[in-house]
């Protein structure tokens, strides 16, 4: 136990009229939504890195936070774990996520790193058994250390590829041992800064080979979780190979890996790629690739990934609308890949940031479910494409240009445009959000 969260009560649902800031107004884990508990729909997770490893720096300034677990020893790592599980308990969060470097000190040798990860995983295991908190996913940080400045799987140095592969093995072993529901491959520096020193073909082959090795090893050890990759555009490199959903799917199809991998999609990354979050979710669902989500937001006046807690209910509602249309999460969930602002120094800030985010997700989920149960949007969508459900339209898709040309001439077809009803549909959405 630590005293970091002293005097902060466990957060409970009190309803929308409460004036208690240390209470949920909308997140009621046992509330039934479309025949399923809200907690089981959302599958909320705390991001270990932003909540416990991040020190409050930004591109122009260093650490602003003062935490008792900041340090490079195993004792510090265990104090951090104690505080993390205290936060999970305060919030009632069912899941958490981590990178290896979030939870252990960094050593010079791979063997020491893996040994430290195994030790802290055992420590996690005891706490998970005591609290019932589960692991949504684990992953390896292959981007922060200077050895990864030119990528991990795509690095021109084969020794860095080897170090990366061995690190992933250790992280996947730990995730498997902890009963993780997923394992994420996030290529933070799998890209390039200039084409003058880059072999695109070689790097794509290396990236695919690494992913294939991970898939093979997953099956070898009997890991039942889902392998996820996370689309990310540009930042920090000029171009990332996993730019967006479409790019990731093209990569997976090219190398025949699409049946083994799903996508972990982040709101902030979608915006940086020039898309909306709901676009990326809808596209992934249409391709059968939707796995899990990172819920955050960007500051739309900033040009980088600011990882702020969600506070825009209409945006979140449209995101969960696509998740629910796709059938909801299976192994995936909602990870708060979000961090405090560097001026938000207090333990209360960390708790209340999650409280607000959880309430926004709950409101968004309920609005999305209400839209689906109302059925108007889907009815109008079906009506718009109804012509394609006729026998003649189906036959046309199996036909050829000459036959279609003959039909148009014989029937003297003169199609007129029909309204897309965009504003009317937006008005319908606004009834619910």
Automatic annotation (TrEMBL):
Keywords: Carbohydrate metabolism, Cytoplasm, Isomerase, Magnesium, Metal-binding, Xylose metabolism. One of its GO terms (molecular function) is xylose isomerase activity. It comes from the Bacteria. Signal peptide: none annotated. Its main location: cytoplasm. SUPFAM superfamilies: Xylose isomerase-like. Belongs to the xylose isomerase family. NCBIfam families: PRK05474.1, xylose_isom_A. This is Xylose isomerase.
């Amino acid at each position: 136990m630590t005293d970091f969260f002293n005097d902060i009560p466990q957060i409970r649902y009190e309803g929308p009229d409460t004036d208690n800031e240390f209470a949920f107004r909308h997140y009621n884990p046992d509330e039934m939504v479309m025949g399923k508990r809200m907690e089981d729909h959302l599958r909320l997770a705390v991001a270990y890195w932003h909540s416990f490893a991040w020190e409050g720096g930004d591109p122009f300034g260093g650490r602003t936070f003062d935490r008792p677990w900041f340090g490079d020893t195993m004792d510090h790592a265990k104090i951090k774990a104690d505080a993390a599980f205290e936060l999970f308990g305060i919030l009632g969060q069912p899941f958490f996520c981590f990178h290896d470097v979030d939870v252990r000190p960094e050593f010079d040798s791979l063997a020491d790193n893996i040994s430290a990860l195994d030790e802290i995983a055992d420590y996690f295991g005891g706490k998970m058994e005591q609290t019932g908190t589960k692991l949504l996913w684990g992953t390896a940080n292959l981007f922060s250390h200077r050895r990864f400045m030119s990528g991990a799987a795509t690095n021109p140095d084969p020794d860095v590829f080897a170090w990366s592969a061995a690190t992933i093995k250790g992280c996947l072993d730990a995730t498997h041992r902890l009963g993780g529901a997923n394992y994420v491959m996030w290529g933070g520096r799998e890209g390039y800064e200039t084409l003058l020193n880059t072999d695109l073909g070689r790097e794509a082959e290396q990236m695919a080979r690494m992913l294939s090795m991970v898939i093979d090893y997953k099956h070898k050890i009997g890991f039942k979780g889902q392998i996820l990759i996370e689309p990310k555009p540009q930042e920090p490199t000029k171009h990332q190979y996993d730019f967006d959903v479409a790019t990731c799917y093209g990569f997976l199809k090219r190398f025949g890996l699409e049946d083994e991998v799903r996508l972990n999609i982040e709101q902030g990354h979608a915006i940086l790629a020039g898309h909306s979050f709901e676009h990326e979710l809808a596209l992934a669902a249409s391709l059968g690739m939707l796995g899990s989500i990172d819920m955050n937001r960007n500051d739309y006046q900033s040009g980088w990934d600011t990882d702020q807690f969600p506070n825009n209910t209409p945006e979140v509602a449209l995101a969960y609308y696509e998740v629910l249309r796709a059938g909801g999460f299976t192994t995936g969930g909602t990870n708060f890949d979000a961090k405090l602002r560097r001026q938000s120094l207090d333990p209360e800030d960390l708790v209340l940031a999650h409280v607000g985010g959880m309430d926004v997700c709950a409101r968004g989920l309920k609005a999305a479910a209400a839209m689906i149960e109302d059925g108007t949007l889907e009815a109008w969508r079906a009506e718009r494409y109804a012509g394609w459900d006729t026998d003649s339209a189906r036959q046309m898709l199996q036909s050829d240009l000459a036959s279609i040309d003959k039909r148009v001439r014989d029937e003297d077809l003169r199609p007129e445009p029909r309204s897309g009803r965009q504003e009317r549909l937006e008005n319908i959405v606004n009834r619910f959000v």
